[in-house]
Amino acid sequence: MTIGLLPRTTGAPRTIGTVTIGALSFPFTFDLNLPTSRYLFDLADNGVTYEREASDALVRTLKTGDTFFDVGANCGWFSALASQLVGPTGSVIAFEPDADNRALLGLNAPLAAVIPAAVSNNGDGVKLYVNLDNEGGHSLWPCGMHPFNARTREAGNPTVTVPTVTLDQFAKFNPTAIKCDTEGAEWLVMDGARNVLGGSKLRLVILERNDGGLAALGHTFEQVADIMRGAGFTMESDSGTANNVGNTIWTRPA
Fold first, then answer.
1. What are residue 3's phi and psi, to 5 degrees?
2. Is the dihedral of CA 168, 227, 117, 202 positive or negative?
3. Residue 143 and residue 122: Cα distance in Å, rounded?
4. Shortest CA distance to 238 belongs to which of 228, 3, 38, 197?
5. pTM over 0.85
């Protein structure tokens, strides 16, 4: 499914569905004219779990009362799932710089604390490149460079300036699990999370591997892996390749 080729529109129709993952069942709002949200809807409509390996890892790891960081939360799939797992005594902190994405995020994870900022290794603010072809593809590099993003490229790679935070600013919340999907900014995020990575409760980190995005920002996946290994984590799986985007699952024993 070439979701990156579908147009981004405003005033798109929304529908509320019920997502079932194992014993969990929860409502989820989809915006059918937004590519990532429509992709999630199509998967759910066919009984397929989005990013199954990562979702299953959260289900195995998060317990009632735990804390979860969702970095690059988009429309809130992982925040919604984590909210069900940690319950009312737990916490979900979702980081999302795009206002349109935050609107859906707020509907799908209403109890999450939403931080309206990009995550980096400093608090200086940053230029966010707006992806007009796929609302899940905003980035810190000109995303019109990607062959899927023709509308973005034709529009001249539009940008907005957004605030930045570091995860270490939130270290006191001592998360049990982190998901980070930032279109190639993963090294910047982890570089600003060294105290969080040393947290006593942290057991699981789900990191997107986007070699092209990392290279556009002057980094490599091996540099990200060095930070993770230095914090005592082992990579359990890697579904990303040089020509594709996927997740890496990092774990650390209790």
1. -65, -25
2. negative
3. 22
4. 228
5. yes
Contacts (Cβ under 8 Å, ≥6 apart) of 166: 119, 120, 121, 122, 123, 192, 193
* Residue 63 near residue 25 (C-beta atoms within 8 A): no
| Structure confidence by residue, pLDDT tens digits, 117-163 | 999 999 999 999 999 999 999 999 999 999 889 999 999 999 999 99
Domain ranges of the chain: 52-251
The torsion angles phi and psi of 40, rounded to 5 degrees, stand at -60, -40
* Token code pair at residue 80: 């919604």
153 by DSSP, 3-state: which?
A: helix
- Specify whether the CB–CB gap between 16 and 27 falls below 8 A: yes
Q: Judge whether 190 and 222 are in contact, CB under 8 Å.
A: no
Reading the block at residue 216, the tokens are 């556009």
List, for residues 188-242, the tens digit of each pLDDT value: 999 999 999 999 999 999 999 999 999 999 999 999 999 999 999 999 999 876 5
Q: Strands 126-129 and 159-162, how do they pair?
A: antiparallel
Beta bridge partners of 245: 210
84 DSSP assignment: H
Q: Which residues pair with 89 in a beta bridge?
A: none
pLDDT level of residue 243 (50, 70, 90 thresholds): low
A 10 A CB-CB count for 114 gives 20
Token pair 């409502």 is found at 27
CATH architecture of the domain covering 52-251: 3-Layer(aba) Sandwich (3.40)
Residue owning tokens 């279109």: 183
